[in-house]
Amino acid sequence: MEPVLSIDPRTGESRGQVAVEADAAAVDAAVRAAHGTLDALADRPLRAALLRAAADTVESRADDLIATADAETALGVPRLTGELARVAYQFRFFAGIVEDGSYLGVVIDQPDQAAVPPRPELRRWKVPLGAVAVFAASNFPFAFSVPGGDTASALAAGCPVVVKAHPDHPATSELAATAIRDAAEKVGLPADVLTLVHGRQAGVDLVRHPLISAVGFTGSIPGGRALFDLAAGRPEPIPFYGELGSLNPVLITERVAGERPDDIAAGLVASYTLGQGQFCTKPGLVLVPAGPSGDALVRAAAGAATAAAPGSLLDARMRDNFLAGFAARAALPGVRALATAAAAPTAQAPQAVRAGLLEVAAADLVSELLEECFGPVTVLVRYRDPAEAQAVLSGFGGNLTATLHADPDEPEAAAWLARLSRFAGRVIFGGWPTGVAVAPAMTHGGPYPATTSPTTSVGGTAIERWLRPVTFQTAPPALLPPELRG
Amino acid sequence: MEPVLSIDPRTGESRGQVAVEADAAAVDAAVRAAHGTLDALADRPLRAALLRAAADTVESRADDLIATADAETALGVPRLTGELARVAYQFRFFAGIVEDGSYLGVVIDQPDQAAVPPRPELRRWKVPLGAVAVFAASNFPFAFSVPGGDTASALAAGCPVVVKAHPDHPATSELAATAIRDAAEKVGLPADVLTLVHGRQAGVDLVRHPLISAVGFTGSIPGGRALFDLAAGRPEPIPFYGELGSLNPVLITERVAGERPDDIAAGLVASYTLGQGQFCTKPGLVLVPAGPSGDALVRAAAGAATAAAPGSLLDARMRDNFLAGFAARAALPGVRALATAAAAPTAQAPQAVRAGLLEVAAADLVSELLEECFGPVTVLVRYRDPAEAQAVLSGFGGNLTATLHADPDEPEAAAWLARLSRFAGRVIFGGWPTGVAVAPAMTHGGPYPATTSPTTSVGGTAIERWLRPVTFQTAPPALLPPELRG
Question: What's this model's pTM, rounded to 2 decimal places?
Answer without folding.
Answer: 0.97
